[in-house]
Design brief:
- The protein has 87 residues and is an alpha+beta fold.
- The chain has a domain of 58 residues: Nuclear Transport Factor 2, Chain: A.
- It contains two helices and four strands, in the order H-H-E-E-E-E.
- A four-stranded antiparallel sheet has the order 1-2-3-4, covered by helices on one side.
- A hairpin with a 5-residue loop joins strand 3 and strand 4.
- It starts with 15 loop residues before the first helix and ends with a strand.
- This is PepSY domain-containing protein.
């Protein structure tokens, strides 16, 4: 199982197969659910995402690009789709 560290603080990132398995086993909400939460918090186009462990919790970190060129990072809980933070 390939793992990689994330410079934004995430560790133990899931690869594609592991992420699909987590979703199928209902251990993580779908990416579509995470996208809805992210877009509610930061308007823009999703340009990157990952599913990693942050502070002991599995979460999506989505990077969004707004129409005005600003970039935002939104963290969404994988367990319930709740917003964890925006920066």
């Amino acid at each position: 199982m390939a793992r990689r560290a994330d410079p934004s603080g995430g560790v133990d990132c899931l690869n594609g197969r592991e992420a699909r398995r987590a979703i199928a086993e209902k251990r993580a909400v779908t990416l579509a659910q995470a996208l809805r939460t992210a877009r509610d918090a930061w308007p823009g186009e999703v340009i990157d995402y990952r599913l990693c462990t942050y502070d002991g919790r599995v979460a999506y970190e989505l990077t969004l690009l707004a129409d005005d060129g600003r970039v935002g990072r939104v963290r969404v809980s994988a367990s319930d789709g709740a917003l964890l933070g925006v920066r």
